[in-house]
Amino acid sequence: MLSRSIQQAIRHLPSQRTCRYSSVATLKECWNQIDRHNTEINAFISLNDRTLLEKKAVESDHRRSNGTLQSTIDGTTIAIKDNICTSFLPTTCASNMLKDFTSPYDATVVQLLNEAGSLIMGKTNMDEFGMGSTNVHSAFGPVIHPDRSDDIQRSPGGSSGGSAASVAMDMCTAALGSDTGGSVRMPASYCGLVGFKPSYGRCSRHGLISYANSLDTIGILTKDVKSCANVYDIIDKYDEKDPTSIPNELRTELNENDAQLSLQFKNDLNGLVVGVPQEFYVDSLSSEVLTSWRDGIKRLQSLGAKIVSVSIPSVPLALPAYYIIALAEASSNLSRYDGVKYGHRVPDHKLLYDETRSSGFGDEVKKRILLGTHVLTAGTYDTLFLPAQSARRVIQKEFNQVFKQPNLLYSKSKTGQAHVLLVPSATSRAPQLNQLNQGVKAYIDDVMTLPANLAGLPAITVPSTHSIGLQLLGQYGYDNFVLRIAEIMTNGAGLKNGNTL
């Protein structure tokens, strides 16, 4: 996925005679892009030590020349969303509440990336505590979409907008984000990238500062599917520190089934059945999105896939169920920021708790905490929270009934007719910053992505026509299969695709 300038730099290196890729050249170009554009697009909140990364890049190139690479991503430049803990850089969640916080430990995914030899460039901007879909709710200011070809400032999407912008602007090769309701896949759609949300429990959440525990998932942003798969292969590990991590016994069974199905598809999609859920055809879809969706269907058909109409009747309940559950969990999770334990604190004030939280949290976070607290009160817990959880279970069951592959969390019986589902990733192209939706409309933008979070399913956004992404959803645990189908779909003519690592 090297940019043209990176490729040109590599050709002039002596090491290019024996080595196709140079970490030193890539790192240099990434720094150049950061120096030129970060002030403008505001993608990075903090940056790693350049001298240290240059040393690591030289060591990586040395390993490459000796054939002793530590992994497929050894020497790859990677950015980390600023709600994922790092001991060597601050972790702020783009909030004044944590503006002076540096974690005493690395998140498990960060530790795995370091052990694999990757070059962590820095921490990226985001909506505060992951609460937003436009990346304007940040104590460090909004992230600006890298593409300014029409001289209009657009949103890169959120909440992982800084991660998306950093990859789109060639400031790094890949970036980690978090996806609670589409926070990786929507920015990927807006920025013309690949954005992957693995199955819930596949990648460790240890060190990810929680927004909504039962929905949060570490995600990956890259310019092509192969690069995304390489990063996923490193962080797809069991972690005893994460109580939601898929246990090894189930993970082994899922991996075997996943690999067996993936092997059936190599260069085309003959035999693949793709479901198109009718409930995702909502009134808010723009004409550009509809055209892109049709183009994606034609692309899959040209590769040999069979397209079938499927139904997930309870999907219209996903949006209200999601926001009830997510905000309730957020209210509980963020109660720890009380001005006593850690984080921001208003000193010597009689109303310590009230003043600390009032000045530490931004308006959007305070709004969601208040709504979540209301959901959990005695008067509404039974009438809102419990029905939302029931709707979530129904949605999960209906997804299971659509897929050919069984969900091993519930049954080993095959019931459905589709291998994967194809839906848009967003209802429109990237919105203009001066025309962002306000009020309730701002929450509707997640309608295409959040069902996968409620059901815990793997989902990937791939670039399509009209600067809009399309989304492939798979059965729980079949992550490599979803990546495989996405790679075949994006290879060759038809859809945009970058170069591999």
From TrEMBL:
EC category name: ligase
Catalytic function, reaction form: L-glutamyl-tRNA(Gln) + L-glutamine + ATP + H2O = L-glutaminyl-tRNA(Gln) + L-glutamate + ADP + phosphate + H(+)
Active site: K81 (charge relay system), S159 (charge relay system), S183 (acyl-ester intermediate)
Pfam families: Amidase
Coiled coil: none
Name under which the protein is recorded: Glutamyl-tRNA(Gln) amidotransferase subunit A, mitochondrial
All copies of domain Amidase, residue ranges: 27-483
Membrane spanning residue stretches: none
E.C. no: 6.3.5.7
Family: Belongs to the amidase family. GatA subfamily.
Gene3D superfamilies membership: Amidase signature (AS) domain
Alphabetic keyword roster: ATP-binding, Ligase, Mitochondrion, Nucleotide-binding, Protein biosynthesis
Location in or out of the cell: Mitochondrion
Subunit and partners: Subunit of the heterotrimeric GatCAB amidotransferase (AdT) complex, composed of A, B and C subunits.
Function: Allows the formation of correctly charged Gln-tRNA(Gln) through the transamidation of misacylated Glu-tRNA(Gln) in the mitochondria. The reaction takes place in the presence of glutamine and ATP through an activated gamma-phospho-Glu-tRNA(Gln).
